[in-house]
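stage 2 :: seqdesign
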C-alpha cells in the first residue's frame, strides 16, 4: 500500500494512507508525493488518489440501503388443538376470537 506525504499549510506532513488523506485535509489542489513519483503533484493528478476520492463521493451519493432481516414465517402446524377453529370455516376458536385476533360476532346477532 502506498504512503503519501502532503504539503498542508506550507508544511510537509505524512506519511498518510489513502484513507487518511481526507482526514488530513488533502484536497484536489494539495501537492502530494509518494515513493516512485519523480516530483510533487497535485492530488487531482495522481490516479490512485483521484480514484479514491471519486469512489468516496460515489459512495456518499449512493448509500447502500440497510435491509432489516425479515423474521422467518413459521410453517402451518400439521395438527391443531381443540377449539382452535378446526372445522369452523370462519376460523373462530372456542373463545370467540378469529385466528387473526379479530372478535367474531355470530350471524344470529346481526339478524333483525
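stage 2 :: out
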Amino acid at each position: 500500500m502506498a504512503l503519501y506525504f502532503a504539503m498542508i499549510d506550507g508544511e510537509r506532513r505524512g506519511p498518510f494512507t489513502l484513507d487518511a488523506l481526507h482526514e488530513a485535509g488533502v484536497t484536489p489542489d494539495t501537492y502530494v508525493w509518494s515513493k516512485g513519483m519523480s516530483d510533487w503533484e497535485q492530488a487531482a493528478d495522481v490516479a490512485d488518489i483521484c480514484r479514491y476520492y471519486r469512489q468516496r463521493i460515489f459512495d456518499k451519493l449512493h448509500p447502500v440501503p440497510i435491509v432489516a432481516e425479515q423474521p422467518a414465517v413459521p410453517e402451518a402446524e400439521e395438527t391443531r388443538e381443540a377449539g382452535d377453529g378446526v372445522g369452523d370455516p370462519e376460523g373462530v376458536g372456542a373463545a370467540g376470537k378469529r385466528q387473526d385476533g379479530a372478535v367474531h360476532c355470530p350471524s344470529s346477532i346481526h339478524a333483525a
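stage 3 :: structure notes
- The first helix runs from residue 18 to 24.
- Strands lie at 4-8, 11-16, 31-34, 41-42.
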